[in-house]
Amino acid sequence: MRLNTKVIRVAGLLLALSCNEPGRAQPAASPKAITLDDAIRLAEANEPSFAAAVAESRVTALQRKDAFAGLLPSVTAHNQYLYTESNHAKSATSQGGSNQSLPLFIANNSVHEYISQGAVNQTIGLAAVAAVRLADANAARAKAELEVARRGLVFTVVQLFYSVRSGSEKLSVAQRALDEANRFVDITEKRESGREAAHADVIKARLGQQERQRELGDPSTKIELADEPAPPLLPDRPSIEAAAKENNPELRSALASFQMSRAETLTSWAGLLPDLALNYTYGIDAAQFSERGPDGARNLGYSASATVDLPVWDWLTSERKVKEARIKAQASKVALTAAQRRLLADLTEFYSEADVARTQLASLDQTVADARESLRLTNLRYVNGESTVLEVVDAQNTLVSAENAQADGMVRYRVALAQLETLTGRL
User: Fold this and answer.
1) Residue 154 and residue 60 share a domain
2) In what order do the strands lie in the sheet with 112-124?
3) For residue range 152-197, what is the model confidence (pLDDT) as tens digits?
4) Which has the least CB within 10 A, 73, 85, 140, 195?
5) How many other CB atoms sit within 10 Å of the CB of residue 43?
6) Rounded distance, CA 405 to CA 366, Å?
7) Which of 340, 346, 344 is CA-nearest to residue 420?
8) In this structure, what DSSP letter does residue 32 have?
9) Which long-range CB contacts under 8 A does 259-263 form with residues at least 24 apart?
10) Are strands 74-83 and 300-309 parallel, antiparallel or unpaired?
11) Residues 121-146: pLDDT tens digits?
12) Which of 388, 395, 390 is nearest to 372 (CA)?
């Protein structure tokens, strides 16, 4: 999954601030425990790059409708009044009668001219069809890129969420270790007072106690996370492959880019072909704003026209544009093939990582259980004088390391599952 470093930084900030939703005041003493869904929802609502991807998807969807509207006739209502200075000459043939003055400008029809017409225009050509195909492909690409951005943001939040949870678990481990160290200091002091242990044992126990106290000195802001069930089992490989191939936004984006390049090629070909323009106009263009003139002549009527523009010579510009579009289409085809290969590579890598993390997590669970039992037995042996203080401290350190490794292993497995789930669109 491709990630943006800016997204990672911003998502981290959102996760740190997600105890308080925008516009809602939360009690400072009891912040709401956030879930993974809460963190994802807040990140989607506040991350600028994701908001830009959402806007781009919506805009291209509207542009697609605009391109389709270009295939349909347009209707306009044209209303105009023209006044032209008279040349003070009378026209016996004008529509207004022999007393009507002629306009000073020969391009105008009369001194007073009223125009109120409805016009229907339609242009038929390859360019409009190519524009629709281009807009369709662009909208599909933007939608796919939005899903890419969403999955990248979700995966980043998952990483941060379980990293925070791991930190909380390690803090609990440190607290338990401090309690164990305090208990062991008490044991060594009692054994020293009973002449069963040397003062060196007390010093060694206190050194361990001081180390555990330093481990609890974490100045970071504590974030309360909601409890979650145990992680799900790893899905079988065939179902993951089927879902990834069926619902992969990066592959859809590459396919849409290829379709865009083909539409651009079609647009280039449109420059070599003629366009047919049709016009139908109905209304009034007369010296009087009425259905009939003073002499009874009918003012209300229609006109129609059909225009064909044939491209003849443009210094081979259109031919070069066709070649340029074909070159871009070939590059888009290569990118599409690369996206297909990358999907298979990511699928293999992510599934292998999740499988290894699952195996190691089971091993770490067993290691923690063995380390706890070892510490318990070593404490019993020390109380009975059968082991040394060094063995107890070593057992304590082994348990802390095992529990911390278990927390890291859980994060690794959760993140590996998130990689697969975002790859397949399940998350």
Assistant:
1) yes
2) 74-83, 112-124, 275-286, 300-309
3) 999 999 999 988 888 888 888 999 999 999 999 999 988 888 888 8
4) 195
5) 25
6) 12
7) 346
8) P
9) 259/133, 259/136, 259/137, 259/140, 260/134, 260/137, 260/138, 260/141, 260/332, 261/325, 261/328, 261/329, 261/331, 261/332, 262/133, 262/137, 262/329, 263/130, 263/133, 263/134, 263/136, 263/137
10) unpaired
11) 999 989 899 999 999 999 999 999 99
12) 395
Query: Which residue has tokens 């879930």?
Result: 35
Check: CB of residue 135 under 8 Å from CB of residue 63. Answer: yes
Domain limit, last residue, from 249, 283, 310: 310
Backbone angles phi, psi at 113, to 5 degrees: -135, 130
- Quote the pTM value: 0.76
Give the residues across from 225 on adjacent strands. 34
Give yes or no: residues 236 and 360 share one domain: yes
Q: Are residues 245 and 134 in the same domain?
A: yes
Residues in contact with 310: Cβ distance below 8 Å, sequence separation at least 6, in sequence order: 274
Number of domains in the chain: 2
* 3 state DSSP class of 24: coil
Alpha-carbon gap, residue 134 to 64, rounded angstroms: 8
Q: Are residues 40 and 94 in the same domain?
A: no
| Domain with 96 in it | 73-124+274-310
**Residue 288, domain CATH:** 2.20.200
